Amino acid sequence: MLEMKNMKLGPMLLLLLCLNIVSSSVGNAPTCPADLGGDCSDSGEWEGEFFPGIPKIKYEGPSSKNPLAFKWYNADEEILGKKMKDWMRFSVAFWHTFRGNGGDPFGAPTKTWPWEDGTNSLAMAKRRMRANFEFIDKLGVDRWCFHDRDIAPDGKTLEEANANLDEVVALAKELQGTKIKPLWGTAQLFMHPRYMHGGATSSEVGVYVYAAAQVKKAMEVTHYLGGENYVFWGGREGYQTLLNTDMGRELDHLARFLEAAVAYKKKIGFNGTLLIEPKPQEPTKHQYDWDAATTANFLRKYGLIGEFKLNIECNHATLSGHSCHHELETARLNGLLGNIDANTGDPQIGWDTDQFLTDIAEATNVMISVIRNGGLAPGGFNFDAKLRRESTDVEDLFIAHITGMDTLARGLRNAAKIIEDGSLAELVRKRYESFDTEIGALIEAGKADFDLLEKKAKEWGEPKVPSAKQELAEMIFQCAL
Ligand code: XLS
Ligand code: NI
Ligand code: NI
């Protein structure tokens, strides 16, 4: 196993990192506290590699025992007529991989990445951005996702925050080169205290105004970086109690906000897809974008259905009491499946644990939906997933992503097997074949009224109801894993 180099930072850094959570929006602290002896400078430069000893990750096949190799994900291999990398369109989530520090409500951060200096300065943001692109290059993916406030420090004014963002984005643009781009960007409208009642759904008009300005800027930088989508996740767009909430007015405000985003997208010539990411709760008790069906209804009610798609996150699906497969199918059947935040929850824990997906059966179901959807482009799979608090080696960042990518690759291979074999599709076809009849066709065409149906019921008498063959379906599915 690889050893972490540059591990000079001690408990003092832990404390600073901890404080950094609380003060992450405060801005320009000095970059390299002298007493820590960190390997850093004011310019954000870094000597040598961020991940020394970690090679470019290659495909070695299922028999490989190398933790730093793919066993199932073979980027250029064709499955069902499309390269694996084009089915997947994997993306690294900046906030988890480069801002996640292992802190939780009960404990201090546990991760002391060698390039971090315990501040949220502009110089630190730039150094982190360099680490991000080395990581992406070594992992062999072409995409990344970010919130405005993850990648650059906030400011005392909107102008200062925007200037900080511009500086980091300019560097990101340079580091992206021609191959890498954002799968999506988004605005962080949940961390700052001003957003405690929401952004677009805040009871305070000044907050609505500020949120709009922040989204406007985040859309501009996403467009500038060549982003393919733009995400709205409304962590605070909801309520804690209906007693003090005008839900109708808040939902109207949210729709007006999204309408303005659509207009602005057109104004600046951004051709990416706008995505809404449903989540039922956390941090709010009730979030308005509860699940795919609720969000589809909201979009339809406000005439926004053609302007948005959905970003389905598997852990959010289970929080809303659905499987990920259910949410993907609901989105797909409504023509709304745009992107997947690839993660999973824990069956024993009732919150968004954001784990890397390792369940091969779940991945197979996910990929069945993706194949039925004809892929996800211009969306993809964003690893909205983080290391466990107890995983503290730099190489764990790689191992986690490799496992996530391999799991979905295995899912794709299995799903292709199931589709090529055809017996599951045949089981489903047979289950509904009584509708492949004259009367069935009339029903499906909306031409069978109750008089006609009553006549048929009398003619046929008691129907014979066949088995659903669930266990056979499960047997066929298991055989492909
Ligand atoms: C939180 C969400 C968030 C979005 C982006 O639960 O998953 O990370 O993906 O704001
Ligand atoms: Ni997400
Ligand atoms: Ni989430």
TrEMBL record:
Residues 1-24 form the signal peptide. Its EC number is 5.3.1.5. It catalyses: alpha-D-xylose = alpha-D-xylulofuranose. GO terms for molecular function: metal ion binding; xylose isomerase activity. It is an enzyme of class 5 (isomerase). SUPFAM superfamilies: Xylose isomerase-like. Keywords: Carbohydrate metabolism, Isomerase, Metal-binding, Signal, Xylose metabolism. It comes from the Eukaryota. Gene3D superfamilies: Divalent-metal-dependent TIM barrel enzymes. GO terms for biological process: D-xylose metabolic process. NCBIfam families: PRK05474.1, xylose_isom_A. Belongs to the xylose isomerase family. This is Xylose isomerase. The lineage of its organism: Eukaryota, Viridiplantae, Streptophyta, Embryophyta, Tracheophyta.
